[in-house]
Amino acid sequence: MPRTYASVDLGGTNIKAVVADEAGVIVGSQSIPTLSYEGPDKVLDRVAALVVALAQQVGHAPEALGMAVPGLVDLQHGVTKFLPNLPTQWRDVPVREHLEPHVGCPVYVLNDVRTATLGELTFGHGRAGGTMVFLALGTGIGGGVVIDGRLRLGPLGSAGELGHQTILPDGPICGCGSRGCLETLASGPAIAAEGVRLLLSGLAPRLYELTEGQPSRVTTREMAAAAAAGDENVRHAIVRAAGFLGIGVANLVVALHPDLVVLGGGVAGIGDLLFETVRQTVHQRVQVFPAGDVAIRPSLLGDGAGALGGIALAMCGGQLGQ
Amino acid sequence: MPRTYASVDLGGTNIKAVVADEAGVIVGSQSIPTLSYEGPDKVLDRVAALVVALAQQVGHAPEALGMAVPGLVDLQHGVTKFLPNLPTQWRDVPVREHLEPHVGCPVYVLNDVRTATLGELTFGHGRAGGTMVFLALGTGIGGGVVIDGRLRLGPLGSAGELGHQTILPDGPICGCGSRGCLETLASGPAIAAEGVRLLLSGLAPRLYELTEGQPSRVTTREMAAAAAAGDENVRHAIVRAAGFLGIGVANLVVALHPDLVVLGGGVAGIGDLLFETVRQTVHQRVQVFPAGDVAIRPSLLGDGAGALGGIALAMCGGQLGQ
Questions:
Q1: Among the four residues A127, B146, B172, B297, which has the most C-beta atoms within 10 Å?
Q2: Per-chain mean pLDDT for chain B
Q3: A212: how many CB neighbours lie within 10 A of its CB?
């Protein structure tokens, strides 16, 4: 059997663990609820047990474990620093020190979206090399920047917070404390909120049918379906959000002229309407140099970018350090 | 005598040549008018003669020549591509091929602001290493991005067009063809235009005194003096422009978390009022991670960044190639 590596994605709701080989072929996976209120010690004990159980299942101990966490991390020591979506007791948790004795292999810890970027870099579109911007469009908007094949980390793995570019200086309040961030205009909740407004205002008949008039059922997926079915207002809401996203992408293109921009996360599932609008906006906004060579693509790994990112982190872990 | 290197900055109005040693100590310099209408052949012949004359003056042939041009360049072959401020006959000019036989040393050609960035990297604040964003604030706004000590070039040296980030999506028309670019809000002409409005509207008494009421004499320098002398409206105009600049800087900080942001060019001469506003804006806008470690400084080289950049380009020329 070839070498195997383990990956753990610590989310606010669930913990997902996978084991894969060097080619990124997943040979085992399992999810458990996070129950973050139990505190870091108990949760990490369950993480360790999960990895050990998976390793036994596949009959092979992992060479290393890559762990993705939702926040900033002391990369060198594998210690959490600032995890905004978990209780404050998750600050300064020595994840590496806690896990290594249990799992019996080196443990590397990194921000979750930077980890997903590493997944796309190692096993997805980024394999072609060069310079890539990755945006994960979900409840929030995160990202990662790869320059000449190397993930830009920054202090505590903080570089790549692409959802917190200001797009509208006087725009809506953002969870980060600033305003008019890309995240306030093009995240899943931002788009869905406009869908809810249209629904409640009687301006989206197809969306009304698809959701049976229930605001709680409005998602970007339902909105994409409603737009395709003829809801012009819903279509406009998607195009408007994608236009803001396009401005965010254009700002990165003028600064870095990347070979590739990859859009992942649930919002990217809107598909062609979103991608075409982003491409058109980049075309309109980047006129200072010819940027027709910048490919703008959906993630090749889709939902799997995070899990495979953890595998990539495990594989190159020691060399990611600052 | 130590090794010497030559630098030529080809501007729309003047050509500036310098010779310096490896430490960046300038041992000879001279400027001549560009007279770009004479066409590339004649202008490049004069460039060659200028470099040869300077070399004779200092009694030492340069090891290499670094030439900065206002636009995009095929770096590998030293051929101009798109120089928006020079007549169209300047497209596809084989600068290296033309100059090398005359000057008797290797010739490297690069965009002028990327060259200035290289100057700041090699002889200025960038010497400390790490990741640096450089913004040249003048008639236009250009820039350069240095990642882990290495200048990001992009195709044709195009990366680093930091003045063409969109700051106001529906903002003023930009020379590049887009709108609301940072350049339309915080370049010298953008700031001076607001000064002229205040002057003509009778809203800037100190500025009126300083310029004797003549709009043609309104510059960012005069405006800084008027603000310091008590013109609150002029002060507000500067703070507003610096706030937009701060948003542009903040967008780069969230994406790259650099160690250092350097502001150069004439507009940076406004001084503390500009720098403090930029720092405050970055503090307000970058809340997603602690960014107090990002230093925001005036260029150490000032007007000399371009000339010394050419020297740096000559010194490392062959290794800049894509």
A1: B146
A2: 95
A3: 7
Tell me which chain A residue has its CA closest to the CA of residue B176: A288
Taking CB atoms and an 8 Å limit, are A178 and B285 in contact across chains? yes
Candidates A251, A206, A250; CA nearest to A226 is A206
CB A105 within 8 A of CB A55: no
How far B49 CA lies from chain A's nearest CA (Å)? 32
Q: How far is CA B281 from the centre of its chain?
A: 22
For residue B179, the 8-state DSSP code is: B
pLDDT of B16 reads 96
Strand order across the beta sheet in which B107-111 lies: B26-33, B14-21, B4-10, B65-69, B107-111
Interface test with B, best of A288, A294, A320 (most B CBs within 10 A): A288
Alpha helices by DSSP H, A16-111: 40-58, 95-103
Cα separation, B233 vs B136, whole angstroms: 25
pLDDT for B204-260, tens place per residue? 999 999 999 999 999 999 999 999 999 999 999 999 999 999 999 999 999 999 999
* A44 contacts A98 by C-beta, under 8 angstroms: yes
DSSP B103-163: H-S-EEEEEHHHHHHHHHHHHSGGGG-S-EEEEEESSSEEEEEEETTEE---GGG----GG
Pick A164's closest partner by Cβ from B148, B165, B254. Answer: B254
Q: Give the nearest chain A residue to B131 (CA atoms).
A: A154
**Helix or strand or coil: residue B281?**
helix
What pLDDT digit, counting tens, does each position of B267-289 carry? Answer: 999 999 999 999 999 999 999 99
Among A188, A292, A265, A274, CA closest to A227: A274
What does the alpha-carbon distance between residue B313 and residue B322 come to, in Å, rounded to a whole number? 14
Q: What is the pLDDT of residue B322?
A: 38
- By DSSP bridging, strand B132-137 and strand B260-264 are parallel
Pair of tokens at residue A84: 């905004």
Pairwise CA distance, residues A2 & A34, whole Å: 30
Which residues does B157 contact at the CB level (< 8 Å), separation at least 6?
B72, B73, B75, B110, B111, B114
Distance in Å from the first CA to the final CA of chain B = 33
Contact B165 A286 (CB under 8 A): no
User: Tens digit of pLDDT for each residue in A278-303?
Assistant: 999 999 999 999 999 999 999 999 88
Residue where the block lists tokens 């300083």 = B210
d(CA B187, CA B174): 11
SS percent in chain A: helix, strand, coil, step 5: 50, 20, 30
Residue A279 makes CB contacts below 8 A (sequence gap 6+) with A246, A296
What are the counts of helices (DSSP H) followed by strands (DSSP E) for chain A?
A: 10, 12
